[in-house]
Design goal:
- The chain has helices spanning 2-9, 14-41.
- By secondary structure, it is mainly alpha-helical.
- The protein has one domain (2-41).
Length: 42
């Protein structure tokens, strides 16, 4: 997924880049939150 993003990044326009970056950050954030919560509940 990350490789695809880096490869496709150069061909994207600014709007698409911003959206892609936002999605990636949101995904990383949710993964961190979920893993933290699951650790706490066990």
């Amino acid at each position: 997924m990350l490789n695809y993003s880096i490869r496709g990044f150069k061909s994207m326009n600014k709007k698409e880049k911003k959206k892609e970056l936002y999605e990636m950050i949101r995904e990383l954030y949710y993964n961190k939150v979920i893993s933290r919560d699951s650790r706490r509940s066990f």
